[in-house]
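Saturday, quiet lab. Running sequence design on the structure tokens for the scaffold JK sent over.
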């Protein structure tokens, strides 16, 4: 690691940035937090004062014009991700953007075409660092479960039915907001890609009188032949977990895909003979790990959170939503994008 700190700016410091990102950034020795933006000036000022950040603004242009930054972290609502990623890259910054990469696959592809060897773009998928998933994946690889037979994953929460998260044109909806975590977790666990998907879901009318997805259940097949089922909801009590079934035993995890660092998650292995044991999971903060990874990528490490990977997640979200609205199974390879 070089002695020079990475001068960092955070764009769109809303609830997520304040609760999850800023408190971790300041713990990462290679970062120096130099600038922040929030669309409300008083909030930007308050955050800057709290963290002693030299530059703050509510004007996007002023944030991008601030010359003393090496890297930008984007925490804006989903519909702004493409614009903010492209502006940051074109300004020569290393970029970390929150999931989903963009609301549509077409927008993600437009970003991919801008990338060159010299540009750094990392897309947040914090659960790739989650011990529940990493340890489960290791046990699968070591053959502890035998041949894999099925995987089931879910993520439920109950959120207010207003704001950008519940507005289609702002990139809201359950599939983009949390379905993307579930989809990425399945791809990560299986080291395989989706080949087809069938999904049923519930939609409601948003503030703009457009249909928005609020919950879904999906069945899919992976390239390695594995059947997976998963569901997500923005109107159910908080719950997230997975079950991975193999010929020699199965794994069950509660609080499996969850950002809190209170150590409540569990992973239990059940063998073929009714025996079971809890797999130890060290406490962790996935946001710290993800952001520290971003710092390492800037310093030359290979990225585990590539834009190509994130674009594939967006593609599966689109296929899922297409299946939901047509009530038909969608083959990913023949999938013609709107
Ligand atoms: N990886 C994870 O675990 C995780 C978890 C949560 C969120 N996220 C991602 O983080 C990003 C930000 O989420 P958040 O919860 O922080 O959102 P948020 O608090 O609702 O808003 C983020 C920022 O955008 C501004 N904003 C709100 N609505 C807007 C609109 N319609 N147009 C323009 N700006 C608007 C807010 O300004 P004000 O503060 O002035 O309202 C705030 O600066 C999203 O991409 C989300 O998917 C990731």
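Result came back. Writing it out in full:
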């Amino acid at each position: 690691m070089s002695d020079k700190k990475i001068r960092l700016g955070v764009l769109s410091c809303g609830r997520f940035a304040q609760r999850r990102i800023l408190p971790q950034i300041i713990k990462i020795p290679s970062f120096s937090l130099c600038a922040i933006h929030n669309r409300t000036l008083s909030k930007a000022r308050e955050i800057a004062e709290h963290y002693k950040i030299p530059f703050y603004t509510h004007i996007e242009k002023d944030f991008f014009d601030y010359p003393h930054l090496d890297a930008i972290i984007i925490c804006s609502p989903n519909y702004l991700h493409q614009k903010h990623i492209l502006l940051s890259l074109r300004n020569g910054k290393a970029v970390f953007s929150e999931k989903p990469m963009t609301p549509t696959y077409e927008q993600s592809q437009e970003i991919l075409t801008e990338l060159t060897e010299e540009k750094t773009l990392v897309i947040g998928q914090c659960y790739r660092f989650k011990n529940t998933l990493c340890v489960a994946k290791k046990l699968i690889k070591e053959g502890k479960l035998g041949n894999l037979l099925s995987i089931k994953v879910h993520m439920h929460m109950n959120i207010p039915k207003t704001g950008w998260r519940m507005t289609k044109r702002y990139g809201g909806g359950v599939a983009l907001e949390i379905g993307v975590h579930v989809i990425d977790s399945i791809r990560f666990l299986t080291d395989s890609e989706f080949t087809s998907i069938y999904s049923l879901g519930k939609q409601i009318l948003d503030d703009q009188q457009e249909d928005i997805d609020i919950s879904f259940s999906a069945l899919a097949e992976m390239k390695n032949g594995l059947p997976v089922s998963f569901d997500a909801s923005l109107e159910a009590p908080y719950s997230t977990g997975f079950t991975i079934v193999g010929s020699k035993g199965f794994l069950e995890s509660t609080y499996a895909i969850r950002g809190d660092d209170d150590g409540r998650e569990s992973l239990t292995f059940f063998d073929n003979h009714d025996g079971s044991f809890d797999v130890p999971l060290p406490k962790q903060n996935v946001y710290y790990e993800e952001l520290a990874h971003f710092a390492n990528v800037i310093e030359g490490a290979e990225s585990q959170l590539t834009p190509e990977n994130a674009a594939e997640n967006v593609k599966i979200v689109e296929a899922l939503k297409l299946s939901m609205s047509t009530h038909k199974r969608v083959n990913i390879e023949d999938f013609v994008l709107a």
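Notes for JK: The pocket of NAP is lined by residues 12-17, 38-40, 43, 75-78, 98-99, 124, 126, 163-164, 170, 177, 259 (CB under 6 Å). The chain has two domains: 6-126+289-300, 127-285+315-331. Ask whether to fix the surface positions before the next round.
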